[in-house]
Amino acid sequence: MPVDDGEESRERAAGEEGLPVEPGHGRDAEAEDHAKTETRRATEDVGPASPVAIAASPVASHEQPDGAKEAADEAKVEESVAAAPARASVAHYEDTEPSPPTPRPLVHRHHAIVRVTHWLTAVLLAGMIASGLQIYNAFRHFGIRGEPYLALNPADDYRFPEWARLGGWLAGGINWHFALAWPFVVCGLVYVGFLVGTGEWRSLVFRPRDVPGAWRMQLYYLRLRKEHPPQGKHNALQKAAYTGALGLGVISVLSGFAIYKPVQLAWLTWLFGGFELARWWHFLSVWAFVGFVAVHVLAVLFVDPASLRAIVTGWYRGRFPSHD
Q1: What is the DSSP letter of 225?
Q2: Residue 1: how many CB atoms within 10 A of its CB?
Q3: pTM
Q4: Which of 61, 89, 117 lies at the terminal end of a domain, its last residue?
Q5: Could you report the per-residue pLDDT of 117-155, keeping only the tens digit for each?
């Protein structure tokens, strides 16, 4: 540690006068003052008396070589520098901690008329299919018995199991079929009237402009497209399916009337190609309905389960818009 010229002069003067001189006395005092100053600085920078500050103070050691003090000072500086990144890291984590995701809003999606007609139609359709199979079971062939028929019928001469039929015998099946047919027609008319009166048909009916969207949606379902195409209340494929279901409803009702009154409604029976072809169209619409229902239920369960609650309560909290 360097000593100023004044101190050296005082030591020489004391030696010349014959007074005893304590070697290094001035240097010890200066070293002690310096150590106190460094200790105070260390306390302010690092915090309450750290082991480094205590080791550097004159209380812990009355005499310390200059090299030891310098080493203590360096260790103190290194400790402060090493602690700085940790404090910065904690502050950065606190600033960048992700906030919890915002829950999707709960919106009203389906009117009560839509919900009631939907579930009534589902029950009535199931009963009509079962009673229709009972009627078909009485004559499991199209055309003249024992002769081939031009229209394809994979279920030709197939007896459907009893659990799938309703009515027990032909007359019972007919009674159930007509008892359910009229409520089915009424539900359909109420639903279509609601669509037309409110303008909801615009978000449901498939139109030519929906063809590109239907193609993109099909690619997404086939996993040939990663991003889900943008959509409104219904995507283009849903519109195609629902429009097809409405068409199936019309075909099943009209062909049923053609079979029920082939003489009184001869013009209608003629439009379907005659009595046997009217039966065939009626039977075909049944299996088309079965296919539609199967795809519809699977799509609800695996693509948008929240829509199941919406068709029960009317309220929807899901991944898709509820309005166009």
Answers
A1: -
A2: 11
A3: 0.65
A4: 89
A5: 999 999 999 999 999 999 999 998 888 777 777 778 888
